[in-house]
Backbone:
């Protein structure tokens, strides 16, 4: 039996092995990818949970959606295409987070704007308070000398102000 | 008993009107008898609400199925244990429960200060009566739990009927934690009414000084403690019952409980600025107002279905009432503030940028940004629908991404803030207090990278957790060392003495340590694993270091439900660790199902096993197993937060006098050897 014959006899076995390997690899990949893509969507049963986390008993929607994800990944669809097909079917609501464009950008910007505005406010407040302290320190000392009673009261106040 | 209960509530409503009106008249006329009368009416409202609530409880425990509310939320076979959560399982009962808890606070406040603060208390009584009136309006006229079952009889005359059995309780609520979670969380929500009432009263009555702050400190801490415990219990319930492997999903109802907690936390910190320095009066008043209004917004979100939630068990068209109340409350606060804004004027001044005052400003800024982020994310779907006509989802990925950096910055401030001195902190003090902990924190971060950690936020969390823990330990050590040197007792005992001498300060540090543990627990989420497969009896599954074997599968019939239960043997390194029994229950009374998750919990990780039902294709049991690292640290941290809060609520122990004697000498009165040894209070070096 020549090498050509051996190859021709083994070819179907090798082909079958290759197919099985590729299918099993594809299944492994699709499972991981399905989780990754599924985590970008919410279950449309109304629970509002991320698709891969929706675990309601007898949920009529989640398992169907996950199966579709698996099928589309198996058929070689890219993540973007897959998400687009779900958006077409369920609307933009299927995405777990608002896409960062158009009006939805507002959702992403609000915390940043709040932080920026708050920080600006804190800086202005600190400046005002600092200026007041400087003015107070620059003001010439006047009035009668401090009595022992006043000094004691001051000590008590300092004590109170530093006990926490 | 139904008539008795509804009559008690109606009477409470009338008394509430009297307490409110008589209170206003008393404020105007200053007649002592009228003040007393309004107070007594306020207290009577509370007693009548208790009677109303007790009546409803009685109807549940006696299986009175002539009442519509009892029919909807209970049945004869429901375990007595679960008749408690059934009381507040629906809209009507939970609103009455709110009134009930609120009335406990109101009665306590009116009784505790009945002979004190005569200038302030009439205002407080009016504000509290106003809040109670709103809820009593709902209890009596909008969502009464005392509606009877009826049907048209001969001639169209309505006849009372009694059902043989009820529809049963939602399976998700048939879990022991549901007996304590709602009362604890509601105690937090309702508790914030007291500081709100005092703040508004002080503003309306132009009550001098910071007295209202001192009066409400403990009330605020009690409410905050309940809110913290309630949130954690809710998270634990979600973890143990919902069966999705997590404890926090940024659900609108979860967010609703978090928001007042965040503003309450900001208030607990910034209030110290007012106490110590007379600063931030306007800010503090608005923080209290916001916290109260957020508690009402929270319950509004739960009930109105404005945003969808898995936790919203009681939805109806009650929304306009709540929005009306929030609007009215805001207008009252705004008008009171505007008319009395000069009363809140304070002489704010800052000696140094590096000071406790600055750290509190940043702490408040970050907490408020967190509130804005959570609130905007929660309500953005509604906004989107309103503006574009398209509803979108804002789920956990959004909130995690936005709030993770905010949370870590707060953790950083938790370590930094307490060690900065009031007014000014020198650079030498900064180096002394932070140098060591920061260096060790960075080393810990380096070690975690060397061990294979690659997630940036987790590494940052490790660094900050070590840093904050060390700063807290150093504070205890320094104080304990001084006491130990003076009293001769060991360091551990001295640390206890130190804590009891300034419970607020050291209780606060313990709370901070609890928060650190919670952060450590949350960071474990980055390493979660899960696996789901069909597992007929005899099948095996490997997840992490655990080997699971499905040993048996039983179907049993219990009194109130039928159950399918898998018996899973868990091995590790060839040794049997534990047997787990995940269940799937079916409740025929309301045709609903529920899970009972089986959890093997260690400090390192939780093995979390869910029986996810049968496969539709093969009818074989499906097991979903999760490996969730460090979850136990969250519950442990929560317990420490509560412990710290309780400690901070305790009064300070006064230092006792003792005589220090020199060995071999008899102390002579008046001599230096006879010195009081623990009189001098410990001061941080930087102070």
Residues:
């Amino acid at each position: 039996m020549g090498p050509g014959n051996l190859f021709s006899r083994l070819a179907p076995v090798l082909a079958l092995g290759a197919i099985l390997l590729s299918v099993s690899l594809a299944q492994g990949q699709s499972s991981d990818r399905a989780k990754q893509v599924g985590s970008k969507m919410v279950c449309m049963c109304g629970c509002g949970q991320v698709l891969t986390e929706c675990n309601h008993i007898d949920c009529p929607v989640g398992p169907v959606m996950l199966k579709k994800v698996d099928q589309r990944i198996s058929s070689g669809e890219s993540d973007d295409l897959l998400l687009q097909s779900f958006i077409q079917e369920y609307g933009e609501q299927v995405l777990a987070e608002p896409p960062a464009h158009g009006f939805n950008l507002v959702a992403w910007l609000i915390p940043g704007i709040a932080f920026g505005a708050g920080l600006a406010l804190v800086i202005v407040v600190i400046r005002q308070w600092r200026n007041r302290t400087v003015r107070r320190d620059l003001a010439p000392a006047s009035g009668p000398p401090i009595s022992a009673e006043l000094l004691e009261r001051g000590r008590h106040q300092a004590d109170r102000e530093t006990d926490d | 008993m139904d008539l008795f209960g509804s009559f008690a509530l109606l009477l409470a409503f009338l008394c509430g009107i009297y307490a409110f009106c008589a209170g206003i008249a008393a404020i105007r006329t200053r007649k002592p008898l009228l003040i007393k009368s309004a107070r007594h009416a306020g207290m009577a409202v509370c007693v009548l609400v208790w009677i109303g609530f007790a009546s409803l409880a009685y109807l549940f425990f006696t299986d009175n199925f002539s009442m519509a509310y009892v029919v909807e939320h209970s049945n004869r076979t429901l375990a007595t244990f679960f008749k408690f959560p059934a009381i507040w399982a629906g809209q009507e009962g939970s609103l009455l429960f709110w009134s009930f808890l609120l009335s406990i606070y109101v009665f306590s406040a009116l009784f505790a200060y009945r002979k004190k603060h005569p200038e302030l208390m009439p205002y407080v009584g009016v504000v509290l009566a106003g809040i109670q009136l709103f809820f009593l309006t709902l209890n009596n006229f909008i969502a009464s739990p005392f509606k009877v079952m009826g049907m048209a009889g001969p001639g169209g005359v309505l006849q009372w009927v009694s059902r043989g059995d009820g529809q049963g309780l939602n399976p998700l609520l048939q879990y022991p934690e549901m007996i304590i979670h709602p009362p604890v969380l509601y105690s937090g929500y309702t508790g914030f009414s007291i500081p709100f009432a005092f703040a508004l009263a002080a503003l309306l009555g132009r009550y001098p000084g910071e007295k209202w702050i001192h009066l409400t400190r403990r009330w605020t801490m009690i409410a905050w403690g309940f809110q913290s415990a309630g949130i954690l219990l809710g998270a634990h319930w979600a973890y143990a019952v919902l069966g999705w492997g997590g404890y926090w999903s940024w659900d609108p109802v979860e967010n609703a409980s978090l928001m007042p907690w965040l503003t309450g936390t900001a208030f607990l910190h910034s209030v110290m600025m007012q106490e110590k320095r007379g600063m931030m009066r306007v800010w503090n008043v608005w923080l209290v107002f916001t916290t109260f209004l957020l508690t009402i917004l929270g319950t509004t979100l739960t009930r109105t279905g404005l945003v969808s939630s898995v936790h919203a068990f009681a939805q109806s068209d009650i929304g306009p009432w709540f929005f009306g109340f929030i609007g009215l409350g805001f207008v009252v606060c705004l008008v009171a503030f505007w008319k009395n804004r000069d009363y809140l004027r304070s002489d704010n001044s800052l000696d140094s940028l590096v000071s406790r005052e600055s750290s509190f400003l940043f702490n408040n800024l970050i907490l408020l940004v967190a509130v804005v982020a959570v609130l905007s994310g929660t309500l953005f779907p509604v906004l989107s629908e309103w503006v574009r006509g398209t509803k979108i989802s804002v789920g956990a990925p959004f909130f995690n991404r936005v709030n993770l950096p905010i949370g870590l910055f707060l953790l950083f401030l938790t370590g930094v803030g307490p060690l900065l001195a009031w007014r000014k902190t020198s650079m030498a003090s900064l180096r002394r207090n932070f140098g060591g902990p920061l260096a060790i924190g960075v080393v810990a971060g380096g070690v975690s990278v060397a061990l294979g950690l690659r997630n940036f936020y987790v590494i940052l969390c490790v660094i900050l957790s070590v840093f904050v823990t060390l700063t807290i330990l150093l504070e205890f050590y320094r104080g304990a060392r001084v006491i130990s040197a003076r009293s001769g007792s060991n360091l551990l005992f001295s640390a206890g003495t130190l804590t009891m001498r300034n419970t607020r300060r050291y209780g606060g540090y313990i709370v901070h340590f609890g928060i650190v543990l919670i952060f450590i627990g949350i960071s474990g989420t980055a390493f979660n694993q899960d696996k789901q497969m069909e597992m007929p009896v005899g099948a095996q599954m490997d997840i992490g270091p655990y080997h699971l074997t499905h040993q048996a599968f039983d179907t049993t019939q219990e009194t109130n439900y039928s159950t399918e239960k898998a018996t899973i043997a868990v091995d590790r390194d060839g040794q049997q660790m534990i047997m787990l029994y995940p269940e799937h229950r079916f409740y025929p009374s309301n045709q609903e199902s529920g899970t009972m998750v089986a959890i093997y919990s260690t400090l390192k990780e939780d093995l979390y096993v869910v029986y996810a039902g049968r496969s539709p294709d093969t009818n074989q049991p499906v097991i979903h197993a999760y490996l969730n690292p460090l979850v136990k640290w969250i519950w442990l941290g929560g317990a420490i937060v509560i412990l710290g809060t309780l400690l901070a609520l305790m009064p300070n122990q006064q230092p006792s006098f003792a005589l220090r004697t020199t060995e071999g000498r008899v102390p002579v009165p008046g001599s230096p050897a006879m010195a009081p040894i623990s009189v001098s209070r410990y001061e941080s070096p930087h102070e």
Summary: Confidence is low (pLDDT under 50) at residues 657-687 of chain B. The longest strand of chain B covers residues 546-557. Chain B touches chain A through 67 residues (CB under 8 Å). Chain B is about 60% helix and 10% strand.
